[in-house]
Fold each of these.
Amino acid sequence: MKITIIGTGYVGLVTGACLAEVGNDVFCLDVDQRKIDILNSGGIPIHEPGLSDIVARNIAAGRLKFSTDVAASVAHGEVQFIAVGTPPDEDGSADLQYVLAAARNIGRHMNGFRVIVDKSTVPVGTADKVRAAIAEELKKRDHNSGFAVVSNPEFLKEGAAVEDFMRPDRIVIGIDEHTPDGQRAHALMKKLYLPFNRNHERTFWMDVRSAEFTKYAANAMLATRISFMNELANLADKVGADIEAVRHGIGSDPRIGYNFLYAGCGYGGSCFPKDVQALERTAREYDQNLLVLQAVEAVNDRQKRILGAKIIERFGQDLSGRHFAIWGLAFKPNTDDMREAPSRVLIEQLVSRGATVAVYDPVAMEEARRVLTLDFESRPELLQRIRFVDTPVNALEAADALAIVTEWKTFRSPDFDRLKSMLRQPVVFDGRNLFEPEIMADAGFEYYGIGRSVKARQE
Ligand code: UDX
């Protein structure tokens, strides 16, 4: 099938590459000429396992093209995916200007039936706005090609996006099918997703608004689980319980399950923080207050400060003269994404109290340098206190303690003897509960996990 993808960001690029991989003829559009040049020369602007091979293979096979030519992109695909950014407005609501600009472009140039698929995460009701924008442009041109607007939210996890697209748990498609155009769109979407419905039907067909809502409900539910576990973990620390034991104890109940119950130093990324806020905002538009979600957000803001708080409790408010090693900067492993990353909060807490830090991440160094330079733009003297190092071991030298913020696999089995000999004091603050408190204590470390309270029990 001929497919157009508008927006070659994270979602658009993965969607386009994976649809080409199963044999479709895919045209990717972006306004950013620099990005298009990188893609056409075989590079990819983001770090995502497996993606660059798929992109290279499909460019070579002639099934994947990148361009800034709007008219050509609208002419190409009978199915047009809108996968542009929806950054939060100042008030937390999703900014739809790029989505609606894409819709208007389609309306301006289309000459035949088109299915417009909202792939960007957009608030409930956006499909209606997209439909209106296209209809308005068609009216201006006095043109009456048929079209249907479909909602098909993505559930891709960064670092596993290719796998999630190729082998999805579920495909959610919202179509209002009471018109012939809607029925035609259903048939096209069914054909398009056939290769991804292995073994059994994985597609949930529903109305457009329910599909739009599903995306927010899923992310809000997951964020809620994490914040709730984090709150329980903080209490576990006080009462002397081990949140990992508790996780096993409750996770064995199939109604609860084990996944997404890991306590840590807070969630980050491009989805949870933004989607939680946007859903609250939608609720307010309808005079509703999502009290649970407000708490989820507040708990997460506090949780991002938890490692810093533990360090301050141990070393005091004034950290001048102190030096800390930080392992892990990206908001989670297998990505270089620094958006809303807890590491940024921790670094600010430490350097603003006079400490210096040596920071390391297996892939996010360049992005971290860029983002932290911006974070400290108005306080360049604090940026001077951050040393970017190229190995985890180099970060340790003469550090008063090690703080782990991201659970990269390479951090899981360090050489503990070396670690101990390099640190000025054998103190580890583990924001992702990578290690067992007892083993760390036996190995001579002063170890602080999240909700693991070994200290409290020892006393
Ligand atoms: C998420 C959703 O999982 C995905 O379905 C959606 O499409 C986009 O948002 P992503 O943001 O890539 O994906 O990352 P995810 O793996 O879900 O992790 C989000 C954050 O939660 C990370 O900071 C992670 O460290 C944190 N997390 C996750 C926890 O703190 N505890 C957990 O148990 C799980």
Amino acid sequence: MRLTILGGGGFRVALVYQALLGDRGTGRITSVALFDTDRTRLTSIAAVLGQQAAGVADAPVVTETTDLDEALRGADFVFSAIRVGGLEGRTVDERVALDLGVLGQETVGAGGIAYGLRTVPVAVGIAQRIAAVAPEAWVINFTNPAGMVTEAMIPYLGDRVIGICDSPSGLGRRAALALGVDPATAFYDYAGLNHLGWLRGLRSGGVDRLPALLESSEALSSFEEGRLFGADWLRSLGAIPNEYLHYYYFARETLAAVQAVQQTRGKFLLEQQSAFYAETTRHPERALELWQKTRAERESTYMVESREVADAGERDERDMAAGGYEQVALSLMRAIAHNERASLILNVRNRGVLHHLDDDAVVEIPCTVDANGALPVTVSQLTDHQAGLICSVKAVERSTIEAAVTGSRSAALRAFAWHPLVDSVTAAGKLLESYAQQLPDLTRFRA
Ligand code: G6P
Ligand code: MN
């Protein structure tokens, strides 16, 4: 089996490779093709993978290329994990929004729209090349904003492209453990869009255990989302939101906290990652050690402002070790390759499951996966509150895709203006103009 990783010079590729090394079953991945537009990054990550594979018998063979078609040829699976505009682009996404008084974040609010406008045209180009060169391949999309990007690729790849994120399974696992339930045996009544969903039930042994979790202050304070949102609000809500909803429910406080720090997350990562790639280039023999140190710093500072706002304390050691990102991808790939039925929360077309959304809207929802792909399963319907927010953000995503694909400035303006975290059309116009001036990929949207 051959796996192609687009964005193969990316930092988290080593997590995926680590997971592959642990897979000893038949039909496992035996060859990994790394594609990246940046040769230096490819070389650094290849050095990390080489050191990870040391002493492991039959480790998947790794090749590197900067030629997309060459990377895709013969692929059984394609992971797409690219960052258009790099971390430099991310810092502009964040900074422009913050300077105009709205949330600047990688995937949520104005920052996510700018990132989407940049990424969608590239993702569509990739989807077209996959359809031409590797039409049988299954495509697993990690590229953020993951829901929007997956929806943009579907016209070219159909349901062979599946979007993934580790946050819903992470939430499910943490909630199950807080209840003393084995995470693998529970059913998660989770629904929403990527980075905008809620756990509305957690069934174990045929019983919904979520009400018991919501009742117990002790259990709630034992895990990340319980501490972020607080028992009082969780009980009012009757559900546990994805951690990214902290930016919506505590919009003022998180905005102020993010504005108060000199460095945005993107800026921090830009400096951290640049140092990692530079040092690895100088000392390739220390690649793995440098990677591990960098990873630990990156994980422990994740969503640090939200945790400060909520007074939630340090990140749980178990969360950092649990292996979300790569495990979701590996489970999905295994279920397809071995025709082993699995239940995973994925970004797929709604196909009638959530009544408030049309069939083709990409939603994040539990699916049954086997060799035929991923099919959404029945979950509870959305409440009015959930549906209101989801439908608003779906309209934003679709306007962003329309703007990215057609170049329509009015579609781009609508996307910013309709976002629940952008509070005025004037601000939306300024955001669009400012992004168009500062991001080379978006100059076509200038007034
Ligand atoms: C979570 C999200 C991802 C995001 C990642 C890293 O896993 O689900 O979508 O890419 O965090 O965030 P960071 O701020 O560290 O780049
Ligand atoms: Mn995610």
